[in-house]
Design goal:
The complex is a heterodimer of chains A (about 70) and B (about 350).
Chain A: E1 3-7, H1 15-25, E2 32-38, H2 40-52, E3 56-63, E4 66-72
Parallel strand pairs in A: 1-2
Antiparallel strand pairs in A: 2-4, 3-4
Helix pairs in contact in A: 1-2
Chain B: H1 20-29, E1 40-42, E2 49-54, E3 57-66, H2 73-89, E4 96-105, H3 111-127, E5 132-139, E6 144-153, E7 169-172, H4 178-187, H5 191-196, H6 202-216, H7 221-229, E8 234-237, H8 242-254, E9 257-265, H9 269-276, E10 292-296, H10 301-310, E11 316-322, E12 328-338
Helix pairs in contact in B: 2-3, 4-6, 4-9
Classes of the chains: A alpha+beta (about 70), B alpha+beta (about 350).
């Protein structure tokens, strides 16, 4: 299964969450999305939204101020 | 002007507050939640500290500052003034002896923005019959504005966050939804934001932003006046922890459960929150310079509403207090009322 990609680096709040939400809404259930972003706050906000809205965070990692989240819808 | 107050900070208004759990951990580690002497009637858990200094006299102190919510400096100053004074008014005290300002000034911020913020804060406080008597300003990468307020009240008449009783009715004096409304305010100035807002009627955004700003610069002083007329068991203002977080404090301190069955929100914000992913409809969206949540006995609810009406304070009954162990419940199908 191909992994959808979303880059929210440099996007102001609330765009990282809003774009993640919009992308997931357009995907099929079970599909994977990789979100790349930056900032502690954005990392927490996107993860929290994903979990609160019934999706799964499969992997979460941080490196050099950037983060990568693998999300299953 | 190319320098935009909201553009140079990643978090805005009370959204820059530390999460409740993190603050609690820090205070515990620092030993700042230990027992106080009998003269300290309220400490870090309250909106303001309360210290009794003589029979019939207590001093209230609070400090409140944050990053900008708006680009217009005088409005930003007014929001800061409204927010800091609210922490005293929330305890039912109307006399604020003085306010000190705190401001952080980035090296590259035009000085007229600093002047505007100070002017807005000063004008707001003067309109509340409170002099601004000094302050402190530092260099800092983010602009910050706020203040410290000193109130004077009768210890016997102060209303705390604790004290809610089973059977109380809960009233809120400003609608929720500052975060989604002000996110729309910022996003409509950016290309990507405009794209996200595509399809949202412009007048919906206008109305939401206008209601949000009007709400933030509206003082909670008239609510404090009402609290001196009508017995109120408990009160808290609704700011950075959101309605649910502040109601949870009220429930925990009162050792009761709180049920929120109505969500009174700024017109248009349910549409915006759906777009942005804010937790508005679960009562968790962060507020700035929000209204006061009041717990009153059933038999005093009509008097409360009539006194609020007299002072043209809009309000909605949002829930009730029941027996329990200190939990807040936001009903899943809570009725959403748009202001």
């Amino acid at each position: 299964m191909s992994i959808e990609k979303l880059d929210v680096r440099g996007k102001m709040c609330p765009l990282p969450v809003a774009f993640t939400k919009r992308k997931l809404e357009a995907m099929a259930s079970g599909q994977l999305l990789e979100v790349v972003g930056e900032g502690e706050l954005e990392f927490d906000n996107v993860q929290r939204w994903v979990k609160q809205n019934g999706h799964e965070v499969v992997e979460a990692s941080k490196s050099g101020g950037e983060f990568k989240l693998l999300v299953r819808k | 002007m190319s320098y935009r107050l909201t553009k140079v900070v990643p978090v805005h208004g009370c959204s820059c507050k530390l999460p409740q759990y993190q603050l609690g951990e820090l205070l515990d580690q620092a030993g700042m939640t230990s027992e106080f002497g009998p003269e300290v009637l309220a400490g870090p858990w309250e909106n303001s500290s309360v210290v009794k200094i003589a029979d019939g006299i207590a001093i209230l102190n609070t400090l409140d500052f944050f990053t900008p919510m708006v680009d217009e400096p005088e409005i930003q100053g007014r929001i800061a003034g409204s927010n800091v004074t609210s922490d005293i008014y929330t305890l039912g005290v109307t006399k604020i002896a003085s306010v000190l300002t705190i401001m952080a000034f980035p090296e590259n911020m035009p000085s007229e923005l600093a002047v505007g913020m100070l002017k807005g804060l000063g004008d707001f406080c003067r309109e509340m019959d409170t002099p601004v008597v000094g302050g402190h300003t530092i260099r800092n990468p983010w602009p910050i504005i706020g203040g410290a307020a000193t109130g004077i009240g009768d210890p016997e008449k102060i209303v705390y966050t604790k004290g809610a009783k089973v059977g109380d009715r809960l009233f809120l004096t400003k609608p929720l939804g500052i975060a989604p409304a002000m996110a729309a305010y910022r996003l409509r100035k950016e290309e990507e934001g405009k794209e996200l807002l595509e399809g949202v009627p412009e007048d919906l955004v206008d109305e939401a932003v206008n209601q949000a700003i009007t709400g933030m610069i509206t003082s909670n002083k008239p609510v404090a006046e009402v609290m001196q007329q009508v017995p109120v068991h408990a009160a808290t203002d609704v700011t950075g922890f959101g309605l649910k977080g502040h109601a949870a404090n009220m429930a925990m301190l009162g050792k009761v459960d709180i049920v929120i069955d109505k969500l009174w929100v700024i017109r248009g914000t349910p549409t915006l929150t759906d777009l942005f992913g804010y937790p508005l409809l679960t009562g968790e969206s962060k507020e700035t310079a929000g209204g006061i949540l009041l717990a009153v006995a059933k038999e005093n609810a009509d008097d409360l509403q009539s006194e609020l009406d007299k002072r043209r304070v809009k309000h909605v009954e949002v829930g009730y207090v029941k027996e329990g162990d200190g939990t807040v419940h936001v009903v899943k199908d809570a009725k959403v009322i748009e202001a």
